[in-house]
């Protein structure tokens, strides 16, 4: 499909002499008219800024919500997932680099208005729409418009993001999101600077803001990379910070790395994820999961009060349910309320992945 959607006006910018400064993210790219920012999708014009990927997608797929990963946001339900192109980070280990690093804008597969996406999610019975594959921060205007269309149809919104966003845009972007998984890539400034070309402090600030100043449900993912962010010391410091700066109730997912893009490190052993999970639990985090490996223990949700098995998963499928049939999200045994968003009955989507085309 040839994309004919014209660029749309962008927001969060200011004039700086002959240049336009983008204020969406901490990079503050300064561009002459016709130039694009670091993310490649925000372009300066004579009149300001435009978003070149508005209405353009790298494709749509219905996934289990657990794949985002979100384990405490309506477990077992389906989510319509999509992304665009470009990224405002420079991760040398990017697992979706063919999308996030794309410069071939006309290779984007689907043209879709916010209403098209919301209507498609509703038609397929999806509980939510996920902005994922590349970081939705860089197409914030498009994501916010989609989120509004979804809410009008009682479809929820999920952002999968690295959290690299400035305060002026942050409030409006996350006000539109019902849940988010924030990629806390490591816990050292060295890692963020050398492997991501960014600054960890902005991400930490975003997480503090989300947990303490919004109603957006938050889970965290850390991709554990051998020889880079897998030391016991760093894992202890990361877990301690989550407990003290956020809350022990924030779920964290330790996921396995595989060699990709520009970083050549060995694939993460399952034992490393088991270690990371044990350290986080030792530091007092209550909901610690593993991902990208088949780890039955690392997939389970247990009651932090009585240790009852509340949700048993097999990869992304729910195979056991121990939550109350009367109070959403409560332990059936002791009544402890589990943080997150739950229904009385689990979703039945399973682990299947279903590509779809947008209905127009």
Describe this structure in words.
The chain has 360 residues and is α/β, with parallel strands linked by helices. Helices cover 25% and strands 23% of the residues. The strands form five sheets. It has a nine-stranded mixed beta sheet with strand order 16-15-14-13-12-11-9-8-20. The longest helix is centred in the middle third of the chain and has 15 residues. It is globular and about 65 Å long. The two termini are 13 Å apart.
* Number of helices, counting only DSSP H or I runs of 4 residues or more: 9
Q: Work out the count of structural domains.
A: 3
Q: Radius of gyration, rounded?
A: 20 Å
Structural class: alpha/beta
**Which oligomerization state do the chains in this entry correspond to?**
single chain
CATH superfamily of the largest domain: Aldolase class I
- Give the mean pLDDT: 93
Based on the coordinates given, report the CATH architecture of the largest domain.
Alpha-Beta Barrel
Q: Give helix and strand order, one letter per element, not per position.
A: EEEEEEEEEHEHEHEHEHHEHEHEHEEEE
Task: Provide the β-strand percentage band.
Answer: 15-25%
Helix content: 25-40%
Major pleated sheet:
9 strands, mixed
Outline the low-pLDDT stretches. Answer: none
How many strands appear in the DSSP assignment?
20
The N- and C-terminal alpha carbons lie at a distance of: 13 Å
> How is the CATH topology of the largest domain named?
TIM Barrel
**Which overall shape is indicated by the principal axes computed on the Cα atoms?**
globular
Strand order of the largest sheet: 16-15-14-13-12-11-9-8-20
Q: Tell me, what is the CATH class of the largest domain?
A: Alpha Beta
């Amino acid at each position: 499909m040839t994309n004919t959607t014209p660029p749309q006006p962008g927001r969060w910018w200011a004039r700086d002499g002959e240049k336009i400064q983008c204020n969406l993210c901490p990079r503050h790219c300064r561009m002459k008219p016709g130039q694009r920012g670091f993310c490649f999708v925000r372009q300066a014009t004579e009149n300001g800024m435009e978003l070149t990927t508005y209405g353009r997608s790298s494709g749509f797929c219905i996934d289990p919500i657990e794949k985002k990963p979100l384990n405490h946001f309506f477990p077992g339900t389906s989510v319509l997932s999509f992304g665009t192109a470009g990224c405002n980070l420079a991760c040398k280990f990017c697992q979706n680099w063919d999308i996030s690093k794309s410069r071939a804008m006309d290779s984007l597969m689907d043209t879709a208005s916010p209403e098209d996406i919301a209507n498609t999610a509703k038609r397929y019975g999806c509980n939510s729409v996920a902005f994922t594959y590349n970081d939705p921060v860089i197409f914030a205007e498009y994501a916010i418009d989609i989120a509004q269309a979804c809410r009008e149809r009682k479809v929820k919104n999920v952002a999968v993001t690295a959290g690299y966003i400035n305060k002026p845009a942050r409030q409006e972007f996350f006000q539109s999101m019902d849940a988010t998984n924030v990629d806390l890539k490591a816990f050292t400034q060295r890692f963020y600077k050398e492997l991501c070309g960014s600054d960890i402090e902005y991400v930490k600030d975003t997480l503090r803001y989300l947990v303490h100043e919004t109603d957006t449900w938050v889970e965290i993912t850390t991709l554990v990379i051998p020889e880079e962010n897998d030391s016991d010391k760093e894992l202890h410091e990361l877990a301690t910070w989550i407990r003290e700066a956020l809350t022990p109730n924030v779920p964290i997912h330790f996921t396995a790395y595989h060699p990709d893009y520009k970083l050549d490190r060995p694939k993460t052993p399952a034992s490393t994820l088991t270690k990371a999970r044990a350290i986080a639990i030792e530091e007092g985090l209550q909901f610690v999961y593993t991902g990208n490996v088949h780890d039955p223990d690392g997939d389970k949700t247990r009651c932090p009060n009585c240790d009852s098995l509340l949700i048993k998963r097999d990869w992304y499928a729910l195979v056991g349910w121990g939550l109350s049939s009367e109070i959403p999200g409560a332990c059936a045994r002791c009544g402890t309320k589990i943080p997150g968003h739950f229904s009385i009955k689990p979703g039945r989507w399973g682990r299947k992945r279903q590509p779809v085309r947008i209905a127009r």
